[in-house]
Amino acid sequence: MTTTLARIPGKILSDETVPAGAYWHKRLATGTVLRIVDLEGCQAVDTIIYDATNTAVRYNAANTIKLAFSIYLSKGCVIYDDLAQPLMMIIDDTCGRHDTLAGNCSREINTVRYGKPGPNSCRDNFIEALGELGMTQRDIPANINFFMHVPVRGDGHIAIADGISKPGDYVDLRAEKDVIVVISNCPQLLNPCSGHNPTPIQVSVWQPD
User: Fold this and answer.
1) Are 204 and 9 spatial neighbours (Cβ–Cβ below 8 Å)?
2) What is the pTM of this model?
3) Number of domains in the chain
């Protein structure tokens, strides 16, 4: 158990380390909290959230951005679904902002941008994870990139830059309804979203006191 877990104010229901480049998924009951810890810093964590009772309803980037009045997510932001209903809320955040724009890496976009597919991608991970949940690649929407640094200039230009998260930074998300969370701990080697060196993360589910 890490020093971060010692600060969790509730009963820990699960505690797992997700290796660099691996995926993770779990169903969370209403009111439980998911903590994602960037153990070594500068690690992008691609995340999709589904309504557990109807997985056709899932995280909607546009609704979330419009209702947050921001392209970046941070403490206090609500993550909304296709029907503009809350899925989860960020109740704590030591990093400060998280990306909604850049989506997930894939072999195809790597080939277009960098001239080679790379050995693995978040899209590959999502397809594998969703297959275990009875879903397909058609169920992959735009996703949140926790800890990923995507600066936007005044002229609208965006970039994928070195991450701003430090070792031990975390984000806490409270389930506002029963949800399924699917994570790809980004394996990207061709841009700096994970510092060209993907590292493990820690994911913990807990019930508040």
Assistant:
1) no
2) 0.95
3) 1
Which amino acid makes up residue 139? D
Segment 125-170, tens digit of pLDDT: 999 999 999 999 999 999 999 999 999 999 999 999 999 999 999 9
Rounded to the nearest 5 percent, the helix, strand and coil shares of the chain are 20, 35, 45
Q: In which region does residue 196 sit, left (phi positive, over 0), alpha (psi from -120 to 50) or beta (all else)?
A: left
Amino acid at 133: L
Range of the domain at 157: 3-208
Whether 51 contacts 57, CB under 8 Å: yes
Phi, psi for 155 (deg, rounded to 5): -85, 5
Contact 34, 178 (CB under 8 A): no
pLDDT digits (tens, 9 = 90+) for 20-68: 999 999 999 999 999 999 999 999 999 999 999 999 999 999 999 999 9
